[in-house]
Amino acid sequence: MEWSDLGIVLNAKPHGETHSVVEVFTREQGRWAALVYGGQGRRMQPVLQAGNSVSVDWKGRLSESLGHFSLEMSHPRAAEVMHDRLALAGLSSTCAIASACLPEREAHARAFHAMAVVFDNFDAVEIWPALMARWELGLLAEVGFGLTLDRCAATGGCENLIYVSPRSACAVSAQAGEPYKDKLLPLPAFLCDGTASASAADVLDALTLTGYFIETRILHLANRPLPEARLRLMALLQARASKAAEDEEDDNPA
Hints:
Number of domains: 2
CATH topology of the largest domain: de novo design (two linked rop proteins)
Strand content: 15-25%
Number of strands: 9
Low-confidence stretches: none
Radius of gyration: 20 Å
Structural class: alpha+beta
CATH class of the largest domain: Mainly Alpha
Oligomer: single chain
């Protein structure tokens, strides 16, 4: 059995003294793990960094076998963000979420292409955090836990949707949600409206929203919390949002 595809490295773990078990997210085959001979060697270690785009050849005796990969670098994304702490955290978080949430050996081409779009914008900090939130929202839908954000769960209306119910995963309007707002999650406009802008605070709200449902709808099935890489990213984005708020106050003193 064998196949070839395009992929993104998600992680690599040592196997024995010289080899590695590498997990990749491929366009046509989905999330797949296999052995890479010599994966701990100096030639392969730069290739096996999380986030790198690679061409993938897999061979195995049977379709259910672990098998082995032959990988060739096609885009060294990890090296490109190595000196940008926030972008590196974003790359690590995205790979960790994909590894934790995607079913094994099941194609999710839309999630694959959207992930590449996030990575392609890591040089634009005003863009990629919002793209990441949209990617996580799409990932939830891809694996069967999509949120209903186009109408109010209480009234059925489509206007002034500013909350999401943590129980139903449905949007709630400002009026219907007012009595329960302390129990609802904020819904930033840019998640529903592709033309809406996204402030640093909006991005935090969006990632808090998607993170909540990733943890409670997907990861809880395996009794796992959000990946540490995702928590580190949120801490960095929180610091960025706080600085943006302070700068705004300095520019507009009372």
